[in-house]
Amino acid sequence: TLGTQTDYRDGEAQTDPYSPEYVVPGGSVPELLTLATLTWGRGLPAGLAEVEMIERAREKRAWEATLPPMVNASQVAKRRKMMDAMERKEWAFREQEIEKLQEIRLEVLKKLLQRRVENQNELDAKRLDDHWHNHQNAKEEKIKKIQHDYALMLRKLIAKSKKNVMGKLERRDIIKDYTDFGSQTYAPLSKTGYFPDNHSERYVVENFYLNTFAGLCELEASLPDSVTQLTIKAPKPKYTTTKTGYIKRSARLEVELAQVHQ
């Protein structure tokens, strides 16, 4: 009258299929026992490959039944010839199986290589996109800076042009020219007809007292003794103690600094 509800499917709790015990009569070899190596998950349920294997086993048993008995030399030679033919047939079949396995492995390898190439292409495309975005961002920043500088210089030119809109003649301000070191007085332009490289020898200083030995001796003799003969006064020692016998705070600090320095 009671029931239970489980959270598991029947397939998850299902064990291997039941195989009952059997007894083989004497003198008989059931064909089903030739498939005893096939178990659930290892050949069962049977597929196309297992069916082909069963058919080959049946053909081989039928072929073994047709082998002649070894009663004389001719029968032995015939038996050996048939066995050699069967062996060549089995080797040919084995070679076909190896070729099929190689083809399957080759297909798997091709798929793996194709997948790796696709992954590498995706990675390269992503890197190129990131590189392109970085260049685009740098380009946009550069364009913004150029536009900002352009607007700034344009405002400066507009402000400068508004100072003398009518183009009136202004009298020269000598004080302004000499206070501004970028004016025509200190830095004249070549377009006004001034070339600073011409007549540069006029700025060469030629002095008798600096260029000749006699002038240097006369200049040295004219100097006072306070310049040639220096007098050094020894510094007075600093008192580290007060009149009452206590050590000053500055003296203690100097001792601590000396210890830290050491």
UniProtKB/TrEMBL annotation:
Every CFAP91 domain range: 4-156
Species of the source: Pampusana beccarii
Family stated for the protein in its record: Belongs to the CFAP91 family.
Localization (cell): Cytoplasm, Cytoskeleton, Cilium axoneme
Keywords, sorted A to Z: Cell projection, Cytoplasm, Cytoskeleton
Species lineage: Eukaryota, Metazoa, Chordata, Craniata, Vertebrata
Protein's recorded name: Cilia- and flagella-associated protein 91
Domain of life where this protein originates: Eukaryota
One GO term describing the cellular component: axoneme
